Amino acid sequence: MTRVYVSAVMPISLEQAWRVLRDFNGLPDYHPFFAKSYIEDGKPADQLGCVRHFHDHDGNAIREELLSLSDREHLCCYRILDAPALPVRGYVSEMRLKPITTSGHCFGEWWAEFEVDDADHDDVVQRVTDTFRLAFEGAAEVGR
Q: Which domains does the chain have, with CATH numbers?
């Protein structure tokens, strides 16, 4: 099992960061990798079990299912259902935010666990790492 973990301090408040990152359909609004997104079957983006279907700028599609979303704990957990361009199996990810009380900023952590073939390991780990890092950077920019 491979685990990727990224953490960041965002120079915005917890409330500002959560407003951006809690939107399960909002990736294209703050992340440079993604071009468009929609929630399948017209479900709300905060309904457990909803599936987001999004595309990167090369047209590659990814489908992910929302497993948990907590406004109290500021966390979101999801799994990949289908990602032909990302050779992973059993991918589950969680993002969590916490306030930094001394500065008013926000601490974010994002992890994923998945199976990946050895031949693809380094590339996939780098792509997932970059995805999480850029998400935090984009949320900090958009959340201001």
A: 2-143 (3.30.530.20)
